[in-house]
Specification:
Low-confidence stretches: 1-24
Shape: globular
Mean pLDDT: 93
Distance between the termini: 71 Å
CATH class of the largest domain: Alpha Beta
Helix content: 25-40%
Largest sheet: 6 strands, antiparallel
CATH architecture of the largest domain: Alpha-Beta Barrel
CATH superfamily of the largest domain: Glycosidases
Length: about 675
């Protein structure tokens, strides 16, 4: 069909409007496909998926077997020692170049990567937990450009960093010993619920970002006093300063569409302007079981001479959250206080939902929030050996009324060089800024178990850390976890911070009286389930008992001839150093027999787990208000095997899930 000719005047007006609109609105173009990958400098290129990992790309190309099948994970360990490269063609449009800024943005690179555009290096990454942004405006013109990302072996890089550091740090679950030196998910190196899968890749989205002004986030401060709420808002932007080049600027702050405050004038400095408002009797956000959790939409619009330049919207809510750690007649409290109300925390620890995270996607994180809500939980602790969850997880927690205890991602002692200090400082700032406006965010914690491990696990002897070496390691940990590197961003965001979990060790009377506690006597010391009633801390942030998933799940991953208790194939799915011993002892003690059929064995293990969690939760709740929290280990697992999870890999709820739901529901 042939269209009518457009009159020249109308065509000129249309082009002008398009140009004005392009100037007014920032552009984001995802770079999802097509991508290719190969062993660095060798062989043919194969299709790749972005976001993705090298392991899943190798499997999709038929170059390695499914790592989740049988004992295949052991046969693909060579992947971690190689360097890999990815490439894609990037199309630059005139509209992109019509903006003052054009950036290439990687939201997650795992972990050591060199980025090249048309063969020219533009930047390097060295942290899985950071966003990487590089300006390319002056290096491109309209058309296609080759983008290449080279991933270096994290093992090779880690060994070099260990040599530079000069001291071997504790690395219990990592035989290579490099995990403490690099900013990568600790569970990738193996854990007592996960295999070793040291992968790499473009694990989060990558995009082109064209803009004149881009607001990264709003700094929202709220102070609740009796029936009045004061709200202050400042802006963090990619380009700061005067947004309208001398023209009249208007900053307009809106709540649910209604204008609450505004500033108008020439030469307004956007990053130096504070807006705010006050509400009387605001609708407060409460955790699940304590009230409703209404959300609000807060928006800041920047106008230049009456034309919208950019808009930033955030879903927020009104609430206050504090951590009460006052000394009392018993010891030291550990109580989450929401809207001035001490609240008993009912919940679980969360680990990454997959060894190769892009394979799970945001949907798996959101499903975990749904599982927690349906189990009558009001808190999830994000464990420090995994990854920071995606925005979708926090949004789901906001909606469901689930509070989040967020560990910073440290599960090994950390080597601190000047470069690594700066690296970690940027990581902490980026992650805190991303999370801080979510009403679900209740607490930041510096690390998982590092203080209790240093003082009680014999690391000094095991790793020959004595004299100056010991002092150096401990000084680094004090600086990192009790100094300003992590505490500073949390405190500036007005989010409570504790330097470690637990604050007390199990196995002694003092541990039951002071702060948070990880109680592991039932698993690690073969105590009976009755021990839960006599080992109640002020806030029990870990406790647990293992079970196996249903045999119907195991059959999907283990050959049929190996489906019997005690088989070597089943043994690869048991990661705990204790093996099945605690399960076998509990079967004899609680059930009077050890089933010989796999289906019966799995069912019996789940029955035992349900009994354990029921007794623990009841003991914790009976001790209220002395005990103010019960977070079981763990809600989920990243692959199918024996674990402390109450939800099997793939989402099937175990018997313990239903028992926990009843225990948390009971008055």
């Amino acid at each position: 069909m042939v269209g009518k000719a457009v009159p020249p005047v109308l065509l000129a007006v249309s082009l002008l409007l398009i140009s004005l609109n392009a100037k007014a609105q920032e552009l984001k173009a995802p770079l999802n496909s097509p991508w290719e990958f190969r062993l660095l400098g060798h062989g043919a290129w194969y299709p790749a998926t972005v976001p993705g990992t090298v392991h899943t790309d190798l499997h999709a190309a038929g170059l390695i077997p499914d790592p989740y099948w049988g004992d295949n994970m052991a046969g693909v360990q060579w992947v971690e020692n190689e360097d890999w490269e990815y490439r894609a063609m990037v199309h630059i449009t005139p509209e992109m170049l019509d903006h003052q800024h054009l950036d290439l943005v990687f939201h997650g690179l795992d972990t050591y990567a060199e980025v090249l555009l048309n063969g020219t290096p533009i930047g390097e990454a060295d942290n899985m937990f950071r966003r990487w942004r590089w300006s390319i405006r002056e290096q491109v013109e309209p058309g296609d450009h080759e983008l290449r990302v080279v991933f270096r072996s994290p093992i090779t890089k880690g060994m070099a960093m260990r040599k530079d550091h000069g001291v071997q740090l504790p690395h219990d679950s990592d035989p290579s010993g490099v995990a403490p030196y690099i900013r990568k998910a600790a569970y990738h190196f193996g854990w007592d619920f996960a295999p070793r899968a040291v992968t790499c890749g473009i694990w989060l989205p990558v995009e082109l970002h064209a803009y004149d002004l881009s607001i990264d986030h709003l700094n929202v401060q709220q102070v609740l006093h009796e029936d009045r709420l004061k709200v202050k808002v400042k802006v963090s932007a990619t380009t700061l300063g005067k947004p309208c080049d001398g023209a009249v600027t208007r900053l307009e702050l809106r709540l649910n569409g209604a204008v609450m405050d505004a500033r108008t004038g020439e030469g307004i400095m956007i990053d130096a302007t504070e807006l705010g408002f006050e509400l009387v009797d605001p609708m407060l956000w409460w955790p699940r079981g304590s009230g409703s959790h209404p959300m609000q939409v807060l928006a800041l619009e920047v106008q230049c001479n009456g034309h919208t330049r950019t808009i930033r919207e955030e879903r927020i809510a009104w609430r206050s959250v504090e951590l009460d750690q006052r000394e009392d007649s018993i010891g030291t409290a550990f109580t989450i206080v929401v809207n001035n109300q001490p609240t008993f925390m009912k919940g679980a620890n969360v680990v990454p939902p997959h060894m190769f995270l892009p394979s799970a996607g945001d949907e798996a994180w959101v499903a975990l929030v749904r599982d927690a809500a349906e189990a009558n939980m009001n808190m999830l602790r994000v464990w420090g050996g995994g990854v920071y969850p995606p925005d979708a997880f926090f949004a789901a927690c906001d909606t469901a009324g689930i509070l989040v205890w967020q560990d910073f991602m440290f599960a090994y002692p950390q080597a601190l060089s000047p470069k690594q200090r700066a690296n970690i400082a940027l990581e902490a700032k980026e992650q805190v800024d991303r999370m801080k406006n979510h009403p679900s965010l209740a607490l930041f914690c510096g690390n998982n178990e590092l203080e209790v491990a240093w003082n009680n696990w014999g690391w000094q002897s095991t790793y020959k850390l004595h004299g100056p070496d010991s002092a150096r390691v401990w000084a680094d940990q004090l600086e990192l976890f009790e100094g300003a590197l992590l505490a500073g961003p949390a405190q500036r965001a007005a989010i409570p911070y504790v330097h470690t979990s637990p604050l007390s060790n199990w196995g002694n009377e003092r541990g039951l009286r002071h702060g948070s506690l990880h109680y592991w006597g039932v698993w690690h010391a073969d105590s009976s389930f009755a021990a839960y009633s006599t080992n109640v801390g002020r806030f029990v942030s870990e406790y647990g008992f293992q079970s196996w998933p249903d045999s119907t799940i195991l059959v999907k991953y283990i050959p049929g001839h190996d489906l019997f208790p005690g088989s070597s194939a089943l043994g690869t799915r048991q990661r705990s150093y204790r093996g099945d011993r605690p399960i076998l002892l509990a079967m004899e003690r609680e059930l009077g027999e050890v089933p010989t059929r796999l289906a019966d064995y799995c069912t019996a293990s789940q029955e035992l787990q349900a009994m354990a969690y029921t007794q623990a939760i009841q003991a914790h709740r009976d001790a209220t208000p002395i005990c103010m929290g019960s977070l079981l280990w763990q809600l989920n697992e990243p692959w199918p095997g024996a674990s402390w999870s109450i939800i099997s890999f793939g989402g099937q709820r175990k018997a313990a899930y239903h028992a926990v739901k009843r225990a948390f529901e009971a008055p």
